[in-house]
Design a protein that fits this description.
It is a single chain. The protein has 350 residues and is an alpha/beta fold. The protein has two domains: 191 residues, Peroxisomal Thiolase, Chain A, domain 1, CATH 3.40.47.10; 152 residues, Thiolase/Chalcone synthase (Peroxisomal Thiolase, Chain A, domain 1), CATH 3.40.47.10. The chain has 13 helices and 13 strands. It has a five-stranded mixed beta sheet, with helices on both faces. It is globular. The model has no long low-confidence stretch (mean pLDDT 94).
Length: 350
């Protein structure tokens, strides 16, 4: 039996935020951002619109594409690092608001690798014969993590100028904040006995020895878990050692792709489409080069969305299907690396 994706959908906020808009609230330019990341614009959710809400938009589209209803789903997997609440996760939020039955929901937190890990989990649950049809959602809303204080009105087009103090504060974090956007993707996955379509195999890895290369402070080991001082100082802005993360990404993802191809008994060049986590266009280009794949096999959309963390792979997969980049019978490889560090790759026959 194979685990087959039978429907896809995306949830994209309406607010388009260009690099030029960000230059109004911090010391940056369109050229500076494009050169370092490839990002041209990203989407920001409205205030009060969280990752669960974007996930539900994507989920409804995926269900419609699969010609299924909530009654047809046996379980939900929701991957996010930015849930609507500290607890519970987004699974029960989506379950209640979308009107699912009292089915189990799994909340997973592998950050940028969340959707990849979710694919593996969904396949494992289907292969166990415990569940037949699952909904997998990857969604993140990063904007609440941004340190822009009262600069929000500007990013959403409401006018106003930041003060010199705000401008200086915002500029401290430009290396991270220009990268991220908000978005969601979802897929319906179900077991099918016949045919060659479906999940083939995956290889997943975790190494927490360099966890602090990409992490966020705060949590249950400090009392209280967030202090006013941390908020004022910007201490709760995600911390990233850009060079370390870049080095890990451009070595670990190619290693994982080679490993999953070896496990499946194929060559890397047999891959028809490689979907790489959209963290930075320079990373995408470096991984493509490492694997000696032609650029036409490696689509990207980071220029339009930025890094949407758990949302990048399902959004890209959905768009590739819609644009006929991925066609029936093609061999698709997913790969990602994120905070943890978690990384890996998965093979799928479309």
């Amino acid at each position: 039996m194979r685990s087959v994706i039978t429907g896809t959908g995306i949830g994209i906020p309406k607010n388009v935020v260009t690099n030029d808009v960000l230059s109004k609230i911090m010391d940056t330019t369109d050229e500076w951002i494009r050169t370092r990341s490839g990002v041209v614009e990203r989407r920001y959710a409205d205030e009060g619109e969280g990752s669960a809400e974007l996930g539900m938009i994507a989920a409804r589209q995926a269900l419609a594409a699969a010609e299924k209803t909530t009654a047809d789903i046996d379980a939900v997997i929701f991957a996010t690092m930015t849930p609507d609440f500290y607890f519970p996760g987004n699974g029960p939020v989506l379950q209640a608001k979308m009107g699912f039955g009292e089915i189990p929901t799994f909340d997973i937190r592998q950050q940028c690798s969340g959707f990849l890990y979710g694919l593996d989990l969904a396949d494992s649950l289907i292969q166990s014969r415990k569940y037949h049809r699952l909904l997998l959602v990857g969604a993140d809303v990063h904007t609440p993590l941004m340190p822009w204080q009262k600069g929000w009105q500007i990013t959403l087009g409401e006018g106003r100028e930041v003060t010199p103090e705000e401008y200086e504060f915002n500029t401290r974090y430009r290396d991270r904040t220009v990268l991220f956007g908000d978005g969601a993707g979802a897929v319906v996955i179900e077991g099918q006995e016949d045919g060659d379509r479906g999940f083939i195999t995956s290889r997943l890895f975790t190494n927490g020895s360099n966890m602090e290369a990409l992490y966020m402070k705060g949590g249950s080991r400090q009392r209280p878990w967030i202090t006013p001082g941390q908020i004022e100082s910007g201490d709760l802005i995600p911390y990233m050692e850009g060079r370390e993360v870049f080095k890990a990404a451009v070595s670990r993802m190619p290693e994982a792709v080679r490993a999953v191809c070896k496990a499946a008994g194929i060559n890397v060049e047999d891959i028809d489409v490689l979907l790489i986590h959209q963290a930075n266009l320079r990373i995408v280009e470096a991984v493509t080069k490492q694997l000696a794949l032609p650029p036409e096999k490696v689509p990207h959309n980071i220029e339009r969305y930025g890094n949407t963390t758990s949302g990048t792979l399902p959004i890209l997969f959905h768009e590739c299907i819609e644009d006929d980049v991925i066609r029936p019978g093609m061999l698709v490889c997913f790969t990602a690396l994120g905070s943890g560090l978690h990384w890996g790759a998965a093979l799928y026959r479309a």
